[in-house]
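Chapter summary example: a protein plus NAP.
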Amino acid sequence: MTQSLENADLDFEPLGRTGIHTSELQFGTWRFGRTTEAGNLEITEERAHELLDAYADAGGRYIDTADVYGGGDSERWIGDWLDERERERYTIASKIYWRIRDGDPNSVGTNRKNLRHRLEALLERLDTDYVDVLYIHRWDDETPTRELLKTLNGFVESGMVHYLGASTMRPNAWKVAEANAIAEANGWEPFTVLQPRYNLVDREIEGDYLEFARERGLAICPWSPLGQGFLTGKYSREADLPTDSRVAESSRFRESYLTEENFDVHDELDAVAAEVDASPAQVALAWLLHRDGVSAPIIGARTVEQLEENLAAASIELSAEQVERLTAAKAGPYQGL
Ligand SMILES: NC(=O)c1ccc[n+]([C@@H]2O[C@H](COP(=O)([O-])OP(=O)(O)OC[C@H]3O[C@@H](n4cnc5c(N)ncnc54)[C@H](OP(=O)(O)O)[C@@H]3O)[C@@H](O)[C@H]2O)c1
């Protein structure tokens, strides 16, 4: 079941079984205030506000951030932008984990001291009394699961947080299952939203993680739905690296994405894009929107043009045969017996 805003392009979808709804495409703000390896600022405050305006104008109401994005600038700029808006209309998700002070072992992870202090700081930057979803950005093996859940439950009871999320491939499915069993046994709030990496070429979650989330009704909000730009048609086997990409300078990106296997997937993506008269980026996002169990991909765009192109993916229909061809272009980790 989908619901529409009047005169808007984006629909709402249930956010798992939380009871609230998410825009079918969430907007990610990782690159707000971020400096590239070469020292360039990826998205300025002015651009950030233009992007948020364009997203909101299309009916978008779900904004994803983290306390480390842009050293806090992402949350600060969202907070300033929200000052001119009706806070209640927007769903804001943020995350805590990564180290924020050199040499301070308590400024990383999900220990109670770090979580409490950082939640207060991020609410101040966002200039709000609560975040809708608070994610643990990564799993912390040093903090006992019981302590973590008790702390997080306290945040929900205090009203500072509405729902709890776990981001990325770690924790693995069994860790979320174990954590939620502990929460339920104690009458505490469980994790209800998951944020793994998932796109046509990064298919790790197609092991038990996706199935587990579907079975339990946990929301799946994929990050890097375009493989950090790989799935947009701007990279090719033969041509030089594009000059309009901020990640091309990263050796990690080049080694993990610019592979023969991934370019084969891109060939199938190009073929389907030609059939439906859409761009590769739009079809890559539409494929995710057609995946059972996916609540809403988190789109990241560096320009308003890119954002508008990506938002239009919400209206692209793929046939079952096209979805199957794209799915088969790269095998997930589970091959069956
Ligand atoms: N939980 C986590 O650990 C985690 C990790 C990563 C991201 N995230 C979240 O997920 C969000 C999205 O991640 P992501 O930025 O990696 O998403 P993505 O959609 O895979 O990549 C976005 C990048 O691709 C390029 N691009 C996007 N649309 C394009 C288009 N139409 N044409 C050409 N190039 C285009 C842009 O970079 P260039 O122009 O520079 O090529 C853009 O910055 C983040 O903002 C963040 O909120 C979470």
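Key point: Residues 28-31, 64, 137, 167-168, 195, 223-229, 232, 234, 244-247, 281, 298-302, 306, 309-310 surround NAP (CB under 6 Å).
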